[in-house]
Specification:
By secondary structure, this protein is mainly β. The chain is 0% helix and 54% strand.
């Protein structure tokens, strides 16, 4: 069993930055790729970013590429999402997930509880 806990969300002005963290408890963190997803009110959960098992490969959705960076520290069992140049449309609940390296929700097996990110004008 893998348990994931996100932190680092909050309220930030447009153009600002936040860094989300996702800490793992349980076993076999290094066996899984990690993904970040978000869900805005009234919208479906969508892919944001993913990082491979060893951290050598990353994927980003077009709307965040160049602004967001995901990384992982397997020694600390933690994955990060650095979010820069935040926009109003980045407002959402952000979730981390563990599973297979892809952009698709259904390939991730374990999910965190989510952390709210609110970008204000």
């Amino acid at each position: 069993q893998v348990q994931l806990v996100e932190s680092g969300g909050g309220l930030v002005q447009a153009g600002g930055s936040l860094r989300l963290s996702c800490a793992r408890s349980g076993r076999s963190f290094n066996r899984y790729a990690m993904g970040w997803f978000r869900q805005a009110p009234g919208k479906e959960r969508e892919f944001v970013a993913a990082i491979s098992l060893n951290g050598d490969n990353t994927l980003y959705t077009d709307s965040v590429r160049g602004r967001f960076t995901t990384s992982r520290d397997n020694a600390k069992n933690t994955v990060y999402l650095q979010m820069n140049s935040l926009k109003l449309e980045d407002t959402a609940v952000y979730y981390c997930a563990a599973g297979d390296y892809s952009t698709m929700l259904r390939t991730y097996y374990y999910w965190g509880q989510g952390t709210q990110v609110t970008v204000s004008s």
